[in-house]
Amino acid sequence: MAKRDSAPTPPPPPPQPIELKDALEERYLAYALSTIMHRALPDVRDGLKPVHRRLLHVMRLLRLDPNTAFKKSAKIVGDVMGGYHPHGDQAIYEAMVRLAQDFSSRYPLVDGQGNFGNIDGDGAAAYRYTEARMTDVARLLLQDLDEATVDFRPNYDGTLEEPVVLPGAFPNLLANGATGIAVGMATSIPPHNVAEICDAALHLIKTPGAGVEKLTQFVLGPDFPTGGIIIDSRDSIIEAYKTGRGGFRVRAKWAKEELPRGGWQIVITEIPYLVQKSRLIERMAELLTEKKLTLLGDVRDESAEDVRIVLEPKTRNVDENVLMEQLFRNTELESRFPLNMNVLSQGKVPKVMSLKDVLREWLDHRREVLQRKSRHRLEEIAHRLEILGGYLIAYLNIDEVIRIIREEDEPKPALMRRFKISDVQAEAILNLRLRALRKLEEMQIRTEHDELIKEQAGLNSLLKSDDRQWATISDDIKALKETYSKKTPLGRRRTDFAEAPEIDADFEQAMIEKEPITVVCSDKGWIRAMKGHIEDMSTLSYKDGDTGKFVVPAQTTDKIMLFSSSGKFFTLEASKLPGGRGHGEPLRLMADVDAADAIVALFVFEPGAKLLLASTEGDGFIVGQEECLANTRKGKQVLNVKVPAEAVVCSTIPPNADHVATVGDNRKLLVFKLAELPEMQRGKGVRLQKFKDGGLSDARAFNLAEGLAWVDGSGRNWNVQDLAEWIGERAQAGRLPPRGFPKTNKFN
């Protein structure tokens, strides 16, 4: 048998050259769009990514309603992968697990049975061991899907169809949030409270021009499934919702529990969203071992179904707020959840939206669903009315209908010609069973016909009226709000709001136990700290040839300030001073005080207090004690002096002081108003008193009404009330002091 000649196969077209740059751009753009559209960004209308939407669609096809029996997760994952989502089964299962975790999803879409993981970070069991079904929230997202409310598209191989978007009777995007990383963009949306979203949506329906500031009066902020406390200001929250970008600082919720014998412990009951509890405790233990949590003594996990992390302080004298501040700064007990509302607008365009934009698109989608559902119902009504018309004709002419069916070879065309009915009506009559004839009564047909006419008129009226459409949507949203109100266990707000306390804590200082001490400094600069407040100074001993100069009562938690004749301030920690045994240690071992400098003043740092500084040249000014704190042992230069001049005065200004008294080496006294002195942070100052010879000996601020007091060489206290003779203006020469003024020309 001869072979039949076949047509020659045409040669393939020759390859066409293409620029590498163009090829890369084209292919990378296709990949980026695929990632953005089909993997990373959620649709603003239903808040779902394709994998989540396909999971719910398959569960609906499997009839896994909330009141039905569970089915193996493997069955669900297999159907999704085989029919709609040609990706790895593990990725599909992980997406379903997240939808079932009540610590990950604020309003879970999947009701899981079995091990679906926990807040410690443990993974779920394999899908062959777990079972699942939909929740009521998922049913709301799928509601009316059979009513032609959304478009369907072919699946990846064209054998099935899947919904492009779900009807979304639940505001899922804001309620459950979303995270994802695409190519060149990302999304991060925290969960919110449904009742608050409903209130904002209802207000936006009523007042379309409402701004984000007004909407944030309803949507207070995120509502995380794990609770916690948001510590951002209202202004920053409003700004984040305006721009669609920002973030929220979330802290763990904690309480102090009293223990016997004056002890106490901290109990953490809520941790920030997406923080793994086991990893959090592990990190705290690591920092504790590394001695970076100086205030924490121990941490242990006593959690069962609820979170309970117990923190023990190192000592009972630690302030609980300072302890928690250290933990907030160093661990994930405080975390920041970013806000980036980058979503697919209309399922096509990636766009960063504000809170108002997101609500607006969801409401517009609900309106489109309502309109499509109404049109679909109108088509069903028209079809049913047509059939009822045929039934009525058949009932009124039943004998003739039976005759035609029995005698005609082609009864359908005969019925259409005889009664002038449509093809649909004739088909319905022919498909009518004999047993239905007894029920086919004219009254029933007319009653159903009238009800459908009435429903048809109502739907036509609805489609013609925007107000009626929005009223219907409002009723649905009000019903949703009632179902998930804040009075229900699922709907109650879990995340609170608070302002973070302003704690500028020195954590090492907080470890020091507060005890009274007496700081003793000798004339040659030997310093020590003796326990308790010493009243009898005669008991103090010094090295041979040395004498006492400063004896200051203090606490172990205080800072000790030193002022040298070079105009420098030095800061010492009272707790680090050498003990009272022996004669102490030289100051120069603790601070870089020049050997030629003398210690002018030694006192306890007092926040908010002010000092009067002056040099032997007679120049001086006022300075706050905070400006004098030195951060290093080198000290801090505050009063500028040039050799041979020296700093000679450093006295605390009483809160009620209104005048300054100065006295020079020439024994001239001058009193002038305190207001004439400037307040500076550093410098030389202004002239306090004028001298022809010598320099300034002493100065002090006082209240004129209380008089000027001093102690003479014999230890007697003096107080002069009438100072009119010595009152003048700053930089004058002054006059000889009153009788009894010390010959040392010092007030003390």
Write a structural description.
By secondary structure, the chain is of the alpha+beta class. Among the domains are: 20-189, Topoisomerase II, domain 5, CATH 3.90.199; 253-332, Gyrase A, domain 2; 507-720, DNA gyrase/topoisomerase IV, subunit A, C-terminal (Neuraminidase), CATH 2.120.10.90. The protein is 31% helix and 22% strand. A hairpin with a 3-residue loop joins strand 15 and strand 16. It is elongated and about 150 Å long.
Provide keyphrases for this structure.
Neuraminidase; four-stranded antiparallel sheet; 31% helix; 748 residues; Topoisomerase II, domain 5; 18 helices; Gyrase A, domain 2; alpha+beta
- Briefly, what CATH class of one domain? Mainly Beta
Strand order in the largest sheet: 14-9-8-17
Indicate the overall shape. Answer: elongated
Helicity, as a percent range = 25-40%
Radius of gyration: 43 Å
Please, what is the average pLDDT? 90
The class by helix and strand makeup works out as: alpha+beta
Uncertain stretches of 5 or more adjacent residues = none
CATH homology-level superfamily of one domain: DNA gyrase/topoisomerase IV, subunit A, C-terminal
| Percent of residues in beta strands | 15-25%
Largest sheet: 4 strands, mixed
Distance between the termini: 137 Å
Do you know the CATH architecture of one domain? 6 Propeller
Write a short abstract of this structure:
The protein is an alpha+beta fold.
Secondary structure blueprint with pairings:
Layout: H1 20-40, H2 50-61, E1 71-72, H3 73-83, H4 89-100, E2 110-113, E3 131-134, H5 136-142, E4 152-154, E5 161-163, H6 172-176, E6 178-181, E7 186-189, H7 194-206, H8 212-215, E8 229-230, H9 234-243, E9 245-251, E10 253-258, E11 264-270, H10 277-289, E12 296-301, E13 309-313, H11 320-330, E14 334-340, E15 342-345, E16 349-352, H12 355-396, H13 398-407, H14 411-419, H15 423-430, H16 442-464, H17 466-483, E17 496-497, H18 507-510, E18 516-522, E19 526-531, E20 548-555, E21 559-564, E22 568-573, E23 585-586, E24 599-604, E25 610-615, E26 619-624, E27 636-637, E28 647-652, E29 659-664, E30 669-673, E31 686-687, E32 696-702, E33 708-711, E34 717-720
Parallel strand pairs: 8-17
Antiparallel strand pairs: 1-3, 2-3, 4-5, 6-7, 8-9, 9-14, 10-11, 11-13, 12-13, 15-16, 18-19, 18-20, 19-23, 21-22, 21-24, 22-27, 25-26, 25-28, 26-31, 29-30, 29-32, 33-34
Helix pairs in contact: 2-3, 3-4, 7-12, 7-17, 12-15, 12-16, 13-14, 14-15
